[in-house]
Amino acid sequence: MSMSDDNFVGGLTDRRRFLMGIGGAAALAVGHPSSVLAGEPAVPKGALRIGLTPVFLDDQMSFTARWRSWFEEKLERPVAFVQRGSYRDVVDLVRSGKIDFAWLCGFPYVRHRHQMRLVAVPVWRGQPLYQSYLIAEAQNIGIRSRADLTGTVFAYSDPDSNSGYLYPQFQLRSAQLDPASFFGRSFFTWSHRKVVEAVSIGLASGGAVDGYVWETLAVTRPDLAQGTRIIEKSPFFGHPPFVARPGIPAADLERFQSVLVGMAADPQGAALLRRLRLDGFTPGSPDLYDGIARMMATVLKT
pTM above 0.90? Predict the structure, then answer.
């Protein structure tokens, strides 16, 4: 077998693994992930419930176990991470009061801000801000800008993601282009890491990804990130925040916010932040998300 044959077989193997990871062909047809992640433990009675999705924390079971233990020590009460497969599933749990807090994207926060309370915003590289990255396959040198993605296969992360869906939709609509016809085909991967993976292995020619996630992967999973190139960066937006359910007791909100904001000053908390590659958390302000609100108004009215 020639070297090119080896590369071809390896590429097919990568594609099969990727398709299995996002649920097979159904995901490529813009399917929806399972609403409950496999192996989720029962929530202890009286536990503070925190919603997470694989959109950010993917393959992080050992980390979330340590983070939960740290929260329990600081809050002096049981804590349960409630994991779901998409932002929409977590948003529904927050809005219905079935979980107390959640780490969400700025897009669903803005969309449902009348039913949520802003708790804290991550600080990354000294700011509570991040960007959307438009990425392309590293070896496809013919793609140098958004215009070169016309008619190609494109990967989004989640339909309720700002960086992984709203921003690229806004950019195309602002240029009087229809996203549905601009790309030859598009699909959702349901996590930013899997957007990078899809583009890296050539399953998609381009994708939209959270810049914080891409930069983290460039350090922790260079084998994935090096298979892609950044061809465009968005303006800065408010970093995906922690939010609270409607009607949460003020004491619970203030205590949880205090623990998050104090995380960087605590030795164990600082170690967890290093794993997240974050500087810390700040109370933040709703106006951090005004740019997302403006894009949302444009995209949702069309």
Answer: no
